[in-house]
Amino acid sequence: MAKIDYMKVVGVLGRTLKLETVDMKFQDATSDRLEITMGGPSIPEKKVLLSIADFSIELSFSADYLQGRDFQKWLSSFEYELEQAFVTNVDLHVNSDASKHVIRVTL
User: Fold this and answer.
1) Is a pLDDT exceeding 60 seen at residue 1?
2) Paired strand residues for 105
3) Angle 95-101-106 (CA atoms, 0-180°, nearest 5)?
4) pLDDT tens digits, residue range 34-56?
5) Handedness of CA 55, 61, 66, 69 (dihedral sign)
6) How sure is the predictor about 103, in pLDDT bands with cuts at 50, 70 and 90?
7) If you average pLDDT over each of 3-12, 37-46, 77-86, which comes out highest?
């Protein structure tokens, strides 16, 4: 199993949220936690924390960005676009609570 290309995940994230990447920066010297700021015309900026492991990537963002049916609709689109980008089945594990959504992506 190969490492996941996190830039493909960032591209799919922007495409499915219909946002552009405004800023990306690694949070520490280990280069395994990336803070992504996304925005668009007349859309407030949104922050996503991307944690990179050997064979998975974890996305974490505020539950205020997407809720209920909108979140489920986006999640289906996100999974489909990831499968198209990586040309393989993608496994998503979702853990949501009142404050944030955490999505683990594995190939």
Assistant:
1) no
2) 57, 92
3) 60
4) 999 999 888 889 999 999 888 89
5) positive
6) very high
7) 77-86
User: For 12-34, how does the pLDDT look when each residue is reduced to its tens digit (9 = 90+)?
Assistant: 999 999 998 888 988 777 778 99
Q: Which residues pair with 93 in a beta bridge?
A: 104
Cα gap 72→99, rounded to integer Å:
16
Both tokens assigned to 26? 């690694």
Distance CA 88, CA 91 (A): 10
In the numeric block, the tokens 């991307």 are attached to 50
Q: How far is CA 62 from CA 1, 24, 46, 54, 67, in A?
A: 30, 17, 8, 25, 10
- Give 1-47 as a 3 state SS string: CCCCCHHHHHHHHHHHHCCEEEEEEECCCCCCEEEEEEEECCEEEEE
